[in-house]
Write a structure and sequence with these properties.
With 130 residues, the protein is mainly α. It has five helices and no strands. The radius of gyration is 22 Å and the shape is elongated.
């Protein structure tokens, strides 16, 4: 008869659902440590730019085209970039459903039009692609 030994589980900062190797987690920890060693606005901007897939300088330039915006903090630029990424991801996923219904892997304009018409959250976009 085999005896089982219970080992205590220590909480970690990693997501338990994430499937990664031990080497990946070491690399992530090293990256976190190196980013924490740098201080100041340059380090904050560098950290934000890694988390955002869109170019923050371009987002800031677009924000400044609004006459009501005179200054834009780095944090606000990052939040706008992240929100834009999430919006594009959401509408692309919804349009992908319509492309898959047509047995296609490539999104077409008609897929976006269908997603905009079918989903109430995108009602504000109706007529913008015309």
């Amino acid at each position: 008869m085999a005896a089982t030994v219970a080992t205590p589980v220590t909480p970690t900062e990693h997501d338990p659902d994430r499937c990664g190797s031990e080497e990946e987690s070491r690399g992530a920890e090293a990256e976190e440590e190196s980013s924490q060693q740098q201080t100041g606005p340059a380090a904050a901007a560098m950290t934000h730019s890694r988390l955002s897939k869109l170019p923050l300088a371009r987002i800031k330039a677009l924000m400044k085209t609004d006459p009501d915006v005179s200054l834009a903090s780095q944090e606000s630029v990052f939040i706008i970039a992240k929100a834009t990424e999430l919006f594009v991801e959401m509408i692309a996923k919804d349009a992908l459903v319509y492309a898959q219904q047509g047995k296609r892997k490539t999104l077409q304009r008609k897929d976006l039009d269908n997603a905009i018409e079918a989903i109430d959250e995108f009602a504000f976009l109706e007529g913008t692609l015309d």
